[in-house]
Hints:
By secondary structure, the chain is mainly α. It has helices at 16-19, 22-38, 42-59, 63-68, 74-87, 103-128, 132-142, 153-183, 193-199, 201-224, 243-265; strands at residues 92-96, 99-102. It folds into two domains: 1-130 and 240-266, no CATH class; 152-224, no CATH class. A two-stranded antiparallel sheet has the order 1-2. A hairpin with a 2-residue loop joins strand 1 (92-96) and strand 2. Helix 2 packs across helix 7 and helix 7 packs antiparallel against helix 8 (153-183). The longest helix has 31 residues, at 153-183. It comes from Brotonthovivens ammoniilytica.
Amino acid sequence: MLKDITLGQYYPGNSLIHKLDPRVKLVSTIIYIVSLFVLQSLTGFLLATVFLIAVTAIAGIPGKLMLKGLKLIWVLVGITAFFNLFFTPGDILFRWYFIKIADQGVYNAVFFSIRLIYLVLGTSVMTLTTTPNKLTDGMETGLRPLQKIGVPVHEIAMMMSIALRFIPLLGDEADRIKKAQTARGADFDSGGLLKKAKALIPLLVPLFVSSFRRAEDLALAMEARCYHGGEGRTKMKPLHYEGRDYWAYAVAWIYLCVMIVLRVLL
């Protein structure tokens, strides 16, 4: 269910990660994602794991909450692993009729699945420790140079912020609709895969209707408050770097450099 998505949710806290400038967390998240594609060896995998665990521990985010966000991507992880395992050529390790498993297929299935899982976890750390307002300010400030070539930076940042805000709201709405229909005799859990998919149709229709209604209410509220974009608008809490932000930048870039060195040497 959408309620299990941690992306877009904020976990209140007073940790060092929570206090970092949102621009630092955005850049560090991008660096971490890049490092996942640089990762090729077991040593790199261990370093990425230690880095992610350390950041999560410093942020004070419960491990159960982090793992909760993985519930909805297991199908995608399974599909990724399946196609890499059975359709990647290489030295054959197992053969049964037309089914073949190669060594490169096993390697790709494991590492591509790890990359996908760690990508979701790393992004979740950023959103769990950053309020949507700060995330919007960070994206807008970081992308401001693009305004010189006509890119609507404020509008892009606003749309992304609204999208992140809607994820937990839609999760709660889906949960309420499911409970209401279950109380009326609907069954979402029994039967095969096809039956479960058909059972979701009565859930998705009111969810889409509710989503459009929320979007329309938000648009009317913005128009009633004379919102006309970001031109000429000032910030109530302007962003500014502190010493800890520069240290965080240094740690992130050192981590990426170490990953690149491991990629070259191993």
